[in-house]
Design a protein that fits this description.
alpha+beta, D-Amino Acid Oxidase, Chain A, domain 2, FAD/NAD(P)-binding domain, 33% helix, 27% strand
């Protein structure tokens, strides 16, 4: 039976970054990365909007804030070193009513506390940056940007293999058995053993964590984000990145406008509970996933607390007119005929028994298995730093 030093489960950007950072830190490591899909970055890492986040939204001192700032710098350096397309576009977070001025001020103060280059701007400056944008006041973040995350993943995979790591696709983990000096990893193809295992499985991270014996109380809830893109004749309505003031109760940023690194403008996403962990359409239903959700006590508590907001998100999913109305709060000139349907994405979001959505990274060590149980946005931006922290922890134990 093959024996390795580290097995990383999950071929998204966090798993790839972790594997690369481990090999950088200890070049003699025998490392295998397992991915259940026939290609890497098949889910969240290959379906996001491509934004390099600045860290302005996150609570100062949180893992999200700390890793986003360091991760952003590391990601930009990485892209420059390997000629991966990226661009600093800037971003505005726009208040469209007086009621949003206080939460906008809070975002600005968080930005300052997190060391971000940001400014409060008035209506005249908004129009200089985005001539078609509504809003009475905004926070301007010049350092925000966009990148080709699938290209980052491809480069990380290449570096892993150059360093002697092995990537196995079409390999689904079905069991983990911890022993005193190893972990036995059962897959659909074979069984292998490793000194340490890292779980970076995103939408399935809670299940893999429980396979390792971790008594995890949280449940990963899949939220589908649905997008439109602007037709070419309407792309001039957005020059950079235009965001609303988010609802502070949720770890979602609201529908917004995003310039894409290879051209075009993306509009969205909403956030609706998916009926499967990989449910990119309403018609994709997984009874096991759905049963877990409806019987989980935290789901009922969340539904009772946020039912009105949830119904609004679902209505936007079925009504293009409602989606357009949400976009028009930011750019009034948008019309339904300007929009074309784009591929959706599904985001893994950990939910607690109390009905609260976890708003920070959750990384838990259990025996010889380290589990990344919650890695919401800005995980892609912060992936290199997350990977480095995991590598530091693993190598310090050897």
């Amino acid at each position: 039976m093959f024996r390795s030093d580290v097995i990383v489960i999950g071929g998204g950007i966090v798993g790839l970054a972790t594997a690369w950072q481990i090999l950088r830190k200890r070049q003699s490591t025998r490392l295998i990365l397992l991915e259940k899909e026939p290609r890497l970055a098949a889910h969240q890492s290959g379906r996001n909007s491509g934004v390099i986040h600045s860290g302005i939204y996150y609570r100062p001192g949180s893992l999200r804030a700390e890793n986003c700032r360091a991760g952003k710098a590391a990601l930009e350096d990485f892209c420059g070193q390997y000629s991966i397309p990226w661009k600093r576009t800037g971003k505005i977070i726009v208040a469209t009513s007086r009621e949003q001025l206080t939460p906008l001020q809070t975002i600005f103060e968080r930005g300052q506390a997190n060391g971000i280059d940001c400014k409060l701007i008035d209506r005249s400056r908004i129009l200089e940056l985005e001539p078609h944008c509504a809003g009475i006041r905004a926070v301007h973040v010049p350092e925000a940007g966009i990148v080709d995350y699938p290209a980052v993943c491809r480069q990380l995979a290449s570096l892993i293999e150059e360093a002697g790591g092995v990537i196995k696709l079409d390999t689904r983990v079905t069991g983990l058995k911890q022993e005193s000096d190893r972990v036995s990893v059962a897959t659909n193809a074979s069984e292998m053993q490793s000194t340490r295992v890292v779980n970076c499985t995103g939408l399935h991270s809670d299940r893999v964590a429980r396979l390792s014996g971790l008594p995890l109380r949280e449940l990963v809830l899949p939220f589908r984000g649905e997008y439109f893109v602007l037709k070419p004749e309407a792309e001039s309505l957005c020059r950079t990145l235009i965001y609303p003031v988010p609802d502070p109760r949720f770890p979602f940023l609201g529908v917004h406008f995003t310039r894409r690194i290879h051209g075009g403008v993306e509009c969205g996403p909403n956030a609706v509970p998916a009926l499967a962990r990989e449910g990119y359409r309403w018609t994709t239903i997984n009874l096991r996933d759905l049963s877990e959700f409806v019987t989980y006590p935290g789901a009922l508590r969340m539904g009772l607390r946020y039912w009105k907001t949830g119904l609004g998100e679902i209505w936007r999913s079925f009504s293009k007119a409602a989606f357009v109305k949400a976009l028009q709060r930011l750019v009034p000139d948008i019309r339904a005929e300007h929009l074309e349907v784009a591929p959706s994405g599904v985001r893994a979001q950990a939910l607690g028994l109390d009905g609260q959505l976890l708003d920070d990274f959750l990384i838990l060590n259990h025996g010889r298995v380290l589990n990344v149980c919650n890695a919401p946005s800005p995980a892609a931006t912060a992936s290199l730093t997350i990977g480095q922290r995991i590598a530091d922890e693993l190598v310090s134990d050897w």
